[in-house]
Hints:
Layout: H1 30-46, H2 48-65
Amino acid sequence: LDVYRPDQKTPIDNFFLAGSYTKQDYIDSMEGATLSGRLCAGKIVEEADNLAAAAAKAKQNNAQSQV
């Protein structure tokens, strides 16, 4: 059944999931939701450099479009 549960990092850029329904050890419980939030935060930290680069690129594109 776990094969159908989504991972915290999705295939969509900058889109992460947390909650008791995601892949984690304690299915549909408060402990599972808490663990999922921690796992999600870990995935975001792993992607921090990519997220910062994407934000800088978006800011640069926005500045150029206003010229």
